Amino acid sequence: MKRKNQLLVASLCFMFVMMLAACGQSNEAQETSSAKQINKTENSQKYEPVTIQNGARTIEFTEMPKRAVTLNQHATEVMLALGLEKYMVGTAYLDDDILPEYKDKYSQIPVISDEYPSQEAFLEVNPDFAYAGWKSAFQEDAIGTFDQLEKFGIKAYLHQSSNIVGPKSEDVYEDIRNIARIFHVEERADKLIKSINNEVENIQDQIGSIDEPLRVFVYDSGEDAPVTATQNFMTELIRMAGGKNIFSDIEKNWANVTWEEVVKRNPEVIVIIDYGDIPIEKKKQTLLNKTALADVEAIQKERFTVLPLSAAAEGVRIPIAVETLAKSFYPDKFE
Question: Which domain of life does the protein's organism represent (predicted)?
């Protein structure tokens, strides 16, 4: 009787073990089936090819870039603003600190160089996409020409609004939309552009109606003859802030003018661009010590506005630039 009981127990244990094994096989089969289904779904969501017109060049994207390198501040911040940091394997050439809201993202991305990297340093990160703000990035003494990069299998996008005469806000938005199309995040671009427009509109509402825009002179550099903004994006930013660039009639982005012409056009405000190694105070003293400018209204009233180059570029800092200018042009409107 005792032996029969032992055999019964052994049989029941064997049956229980077999049932567990069968369940395990069933679960494993289900997991394998689910994995296959996920892979099938992912494969069905193939990258939709994108064609981008970039100046005179047409760029065909048959797959999404996965190893992007950005060069120049405004290009880097556009990528970060669109939430594309996971595709960035390198960055280079900032003019200023990165915006606070992007610092955490930016800190995770390798900085290849403080300025433009050599082609060798650029290629070391194995990029498949290069996005630069200025055409100077795509030179032989920098990362290479468009043709050279194409031979390496690297797509290159030049921020178009920074490289045309007389860019407007819509030109900047077109660059943002193009980058979003390449990475299939068009909705993020729409949201970003709407946010920028709303911020600018709020600033302009505070300014209110203006009978006569302030006359504005942009001082970049130069002692014997000043270098000034003419029809670059600064003119658009000044307009949005309620001013008028006194040299906006010159049909190029930057120009050397004469101090005599500055006197003749008599600016009410002087915007000093802050960048590089020349301190703002030195630039200001250059203007104040220039005897030829003694009768200029902006000099007599010492009405200076400092604008960082990073804010003057064609990027996501449009509201920052407009607010900085507007508060300087019409301080009573913001009290």
Answer: Bacteria
Q: What's CA 107's distance to the chain center, in Å?
A: 16
Contact 156, 149 (CB under 8 A): yes
Would you list the DSSP string of 43-101? HHSPPPPEEEEETTEEEEESS--SSEEEESHHHHHHHHHTT-GGGEEEEE--SSPPPGG
Structural domains in the chain plus CATH codes: 50-194 (3.40.50.1980), 210-330 (3.40.50.1980)
d(CA 283, CA 285): 5
CA 117 → CA 57, 75, 141, 156, 265, distances in Å? 24, 16, 9, 15, 42
Parts of the chain with a pLDDT under 70: 1-45
The single residue listed with the structure tokens 């390449």 is 182
End-to-end CA, the chain: 101
Residue whose structure tokens are 């045309």: 164
Q: How many CB atoms lie within 10 A of CB 51?
A: 9
| CA-based torsion, 318, 320, 324, 326: positive or negative | positive
- Which amino acid is located at 158 in the chain? L
0.90 surpassed by pTM: no
Distances (CA, A) of 262 to 57, 127, 135, 191, 290: 39, 47, 30, 41, 12
Q: At what angle do helices 318-329 and 186-207 cross, to 10 degrees?
A: 0
Q: 276-333, pLDDT tens digit by residue?
A: 889 999 999 999 999 999 999 999 999 999 999 999 999 999 999 999 999 999 999 9
User: What count of other Cβ atoms lies within 10 Å of the Cβ of residue 174?
Assistant: 16
C-alpha span between 59 and 68 (Å, rounded): 15
Q: State residue 170 phi and psi, 5-degree precision.
A: -65, -30
Provide the pairing of β-strand 227-229 with 254-256.
antiparallel
